[in-house]
Batch of 3 targets.
Target 1
Amino acid sequence: MTWWLVAFVREGSAAYLSHLDTTRALQRIFARAGIELARSQGMRPKACISLPLPLPVGASGCDELAVVEVVDASIAPATAVAKLDAVAPPGIVPVGVTVVGERHPRPRAKRAEYTCHVRGDATALGSAVARFAHEPQVIRERVSPKGRRSLDLKEYVADTRVGPTADGVTLDFAIRHRATGAARPQEYIDLIAEWAEVEPVMHHLRRTRITWENLPPATTVGAEGVGVCDADEESVDR
């Protein structure tokens, strides 16, 4: 048995899959490709597959990563990519396999980059983004079944760029992931929309790149797949 890092793209109608549905879709792709996944021990064994940074529902991703354990360690990465791609449904595109050996890899996201379109007055939206850049702190409250939590968006949101469009703006921004967690893209958009007095709706949200830490050294690297959304970027950033 051996562990793989599988780079893939999620786009089109597949963007509306939940985290669990995306995981199930990947399991089915492996089953159709004839590549057996290892299973956990215990009363209810499960396929050894995980997504270390789930995408929001409705978002596409150009640089996604799955961690899987496969039974047959002899499969060449390039062969695996070809088999997976041949049976993948529309919207999920396997683009690369990295073999990392017998030790379970546990990658952690350090930074994720996003782009989206926000409709409304471009001048007001641009002013809201500029205000965010100059504020020393921007405290927001997050309410969940576990209770209330305050977080400073300035600790997590970085490198925002804004470009006017015919009916609003394109926003590019990065979310830093820390030991304390991370902000959600919607939390940042809610703030900018509130300040600009527009609807807090992200259109065409896309995660373009993820920077990882704690990736083990690869023993074999498959075909260098790149995301369809961003062909100039590498699949996995070490």
Target 2
Amino acid sequence: MRRVRVRPAPGPLAGALGLPGDKSIAHRAVLLGALATGTQRIRGLPQGADVRASLAAVAALGARVEPDADWTLVHGAGRRFGAVGPEVIDCANSGTTMRLLAGMLAGGSRTVVLDGDASLRRRPMERVAAPLRALGARVETTAGRPPIRIHPGTLRGIDWTLPVASAQVKSAILLAGLGAAGETVVREPHPTRDHTERMLVAMGVPVERRDGAVAVRGGTELHAIDLTLPGDPSSAAFFAVAAAIVPGSRVVLRDVCVNPTRDGFVRILRRMGAAIEYRNARDVGGEPCADVCAAAGVLVGTSIDAAEVPAAVDELPVLAIAAACAAGETQVRGASELRVKESDRLEALAQLRVLGVDVTVVPDGLVVRGTGGGPLGSGAVSARGDHRIAMAFAVAALRAPDGIEIDDAGAVDVSFPGFFDRLSVLGAQVEVLA
């Protein structure tokens, strides 16, 4: 599937959907399972290309992976992880795989090269290489980008302040710290997703949380666990916005992770006027989880500042669609991280102009002047190899009477292979063109 045309549903969106397991937690379940003793059993593992990259990488580096009915089993290699396998590991399009593996391999016994596809090779890696060097690792990047070459090194704990809030970099430092002498502390300017910390605790690693910081001590062994993954909130956000912008809609998203470091999009949508509530709150695999009920509302513009970005960074593309359908102006600031994702998402979202939306791109964000609830124009846009851009414009098409044509729509398979099928379940008309 390369090109699709999405047209609006004939009426309000209605229904209940299940979602893929959370991608961020899935990566960590696979990668930490490879470092553990015993067998990590994971239920609900999503089938997107990014998670498959982590599975292939740990299998190449000494862990054994096998399916077992509803579970995926990762037989951990423990301290032997990374001691065997090819020199070059292909991380495909997955920045999470590359950055977390860099931390895991920083104190290893042999040289390993982490590489990826053309998109991943454009993404910045000095932000993870610099703290790993401070720990004592020998790390070489390619002009600051992949491939990354990691040589054997003896690690000692550090106290590191992140210049830019990043859960991936935080996690890489913590995982390297497990193999370092003494304590490793990571300080962050704004809270980022804490799935690594939660999972480390569940697997037997003491984690100390302080004001704006998290710390681990080296030498603690990880023990494999059974883990059920909650639904991915980043996937849920597309359908929540879809319900919010189509009059009369009401959609229920089942078993969604509502970790407060991940549900920033809910707080922003509520502020804009969407009706969103949590039901059946419970704990799933050590993470807060609930059914997310989203309904249409009269949306108004808002301001999203740097402190809010980490808890909504992956959802900002679809929040821009909500802004396009709102009354008034929405400003997004402190989001320069969007320029170094699978695409430059700020420039990709400027394609809203094709739909008649007034958009200004600034160095660290966007200014979107919404239609005030009026329809969007139709036209053709490109996903630019980016799964979240493809899904965001598919949601925009629900307010474009003549539909929107999306090139490179197959990019959705990175995180959500069944996305267009679920959109059809809710009533949207999806036509595969090529």
Target 3
Amino acid sequence: MRKKVAFICVKNSCRSQMAEGFAKFYGADVIEAYSAGTEISGKIDPNAILVMQQIGIDISNQYSKSIDSLPKQLDIVITMGCGVNCPYIPCQHIEDWGLDDPAGKPLEEYVRIRNQIEKKVKELIERIKNGEFDTRKAFFSTNAE
């Protein structure tokens, strides 16, 4: 069964959009991917679209969404390193990836962040495939502490 994964950022215009694109591209068999923002921008950063197109992933049809648009039941929430407190989002697991925001910086910075996101999404997919987020395992590991 696929895990519902939400990638959260402030404006949902760059990092979280790239993460959603990677998750759909590499992990469609194990991830039902979403992205959202706490203060949506209303558009996707053109440089985010460009650097993803450079590696053959098209995120131009994605759009900036509010966290209110997320499904009520999520398995995993990933915050991108926004430096803001996200409202409580019910899920089984949450983690922060601590990624810099490339907005307004040279294209090379977008490429650097894109490559970090790609690596982290691939690692997340492997963790899901290895059963790290199985409800039963999470329940027992939480109670063992």
